[in-house]
Specification:
The complex is a heterodimer. By secondary structure, chain A is of the alpha/beta class. Chain A has twelve helices and nine strands.
Chain lengths: ~325, ~160
């Protein structure tokens, strides 16, 4: 069984959220519609819903993260869950505890959901295979494999600005090779029927057979940006690079950095996205990142509602499965 | 049974009388998705209320989340007015166990502290499991637990009573 299958029950309902691959249009639109209903909570006097009252969510981060971890934490708290944050990069893993031992120890604390980030691809799937049946596992990024909640908040942000996916041309620019964000986003856009998905990158920063993902490949930024509706810039992930994949950051910016002049090649109402953290002057110029077309901070806000949606949907299905209160 | 329009007229006249008796001015109407919103839209017009209509989806406040999970048809709640210190009229199609109204009241109070809340329903079918009663009702029905009453709409609004074996 693959990650695709392990995250669904026999009726095709989401039990875990590990990867976008293999999900249906219906799965994605259910998450987006639920997130839309949750967006308003932040504007109320009480920014909290009782939905996950009495549940415990554990943030298990084996890799550093600020935005993703805090928005997961806020999402859980806005649903009235209790949250435990474990930064394992600085705890037991260093002392040599295995992933399974960590898992069993946290299970023994009677938790209901694991949100997990790990530098190894497949780590969240491994957890999902070994957890007790009442626990839901959410993948908050595994190696270069997947970052499905980021992909959902990206398509949610796109849909709020440009709801007609079949008419859209979307360019994803930069370090595609190391980007779990790009991989998950490409799958989500394909499932939602996006008109044209382009990846723009030097050959050294593209995975082998990238065309098989259903994208059009460009090596030159000006060509690829022409008439697009959405530009998704990726962070240059120097920490994952082995050997000389690129000459220098300055040269990368000269060829692939998004500047106002280059953005002018896209449609006049094109939006600019970036999953963060931004390397200013490496993949994006500050004037674009802070400019009127940038929706980068909206992505952060939307991440909370989208994560609330995924948490309540997956835990809701677990409740049904275990027949709690029945 | 009488048609839905005449039931709504009954609700409207009961509400007019209540508002006058308690000297409640500028009330806001709030319909509970989905049937309650349909009824609230008609009452809003009949009562000539100037405050825009509120719509409440109580999915995230239900007490049976751990049995049925999230309703995939959930819609955003919209209260286009300040709840604080306002007289509210909460409107639903069918009043049965009272659990929906409990959830709706909890949600309302997360928006602010209203001056008062009245409950108006198209049909009160009895069978309460919580201490909740309607201030205005279009009709009172006595139904057995295997009977189900449902409002279909929005055009036309019709009440269906079915027996579920």
């Amino acid at each position: 069984m693959s990650a695709t299958h392990i995250q669904l029950d026999a009726q095709g309902r989401l039990l875990h959220f590990l990867t976008i691959e293999g999900l249906t249009h219906r799965h994605l639109t259910d998450i987006l519609d639920t997130a839309e209903s949750l967006r308003g909570v932040a504007e109320r006097r009480v920014k909290k819903l009782p939905t996950l009252h009495g549940k415990t969510v554990v943030n298990l981060f084996f890799e550093a993260s600020t935005r993703t971890r805090t928005t997961f934490e806020l999402a859980a708290k806005r649903l009235s869950a209790d949250v435990l944050n474990l930064n394992i990069a600085t705890s037991s893993a260093v002392k040599g505890e295995s992933l399974l031992d960590t898992l069993h120890n946290i299970e023994a604390m009677q938790c209901d959901m694991f949100v997990m980030r790990h530098s190894q691809s497949g780590a969240a799937e491994f957890m999902a295979r070994h957890v007790k049946p009442h626990i839901a596992v959410l993948n908050a990024g595994d190696g270069c494999h997947a970052h499905p909640t980021q992909a959902m908040l990206d398509v949610f942000t796109i849909r709020r600005h440009k709801p007609d996916f079949p008419s859209l041309q979307i360019a994803i620019v930069g370090d595609i090779l190391h980007s779990r964000v790009a991989r998950s986003l490409i799958h989500a856009l394909n499932i939602l029927g996006a008109g044209n998905i382009r990846v723009i990158a030097p050959r050294t920063l593209l995975p082998a057979q990238v065309e098989n993902l259903g994208v059009q490949v460009f090596h030159r930024l000006p060509e690829g940006l022409r008439d697009v509706d959405v530009v998704v810039m990726l962070r240059l992930q120097r920490e994952r690079m082995e050997g000389a994949l690129l000459p220098s950051e300055q040269e990368f910016f000269q060829q692939y950095g998004l500047t106002e002049e280059r953005l002018a090649l896209a449609k006049p109402d094109a939006i600019v996205m970036h999953p963060g953290p931004i390397n200013r002057g490496v993949e994006i110029d500050s004037r674009v990142a802070d400019g009127p077309r940038s929706v980068i901070l909206e992505q952060v806000t939307n991440g909370i509602a989208v994560r609330m949606a995924i948490m309540s949907i997956t835990l809701g299905h677990h409740a049904r499965l275990t027949g709690e209160d029945a | 049974m009488r048609d839905v329009e005449s039931l709504i007229e009954t609700m409207a006249s009961q509400l007019r009388e209540l508002l006058a008796r308690h000297k409640m001015t500028e009330p806001a109407l709030i319909g509970i998705h989905t049937g309650g919103v349909w009824v609230a839209e008609q009452l809003h017009a009949q009562l000539g209320v100037t405050t825009p209509l509120g719509r409440l989806d109580i999915s995230f406040y239900r007490d049976d989340f751990s049995r049925i999970g999230v309703n995939p048809q959930v819609r955003p709640s919209e209260l286009p007015f300040d709840v604080e210190n306002r007289h509210l009229i909460l409107i639903d199609d069918v009043l049965y166990t009272g659990r929906t109204v409990r959830a709706a009241l909890n949600e309302l109070f997360d928006y602010g502290r209203p001056a008062s809340v009245l409950l108006a329903v198209l049909v009160d079918r009895g069978g309460r499991e919580l201490p909740i009663e309607a201030n205005a009702a279009g009709a009172h029905l006595t139904l057995s637990p295997d009977q189900h009453v449902r409002l279909t709409g929005p055009d036309p609004l019709q009440l269906l009573v079915q027996t579920i074996p």
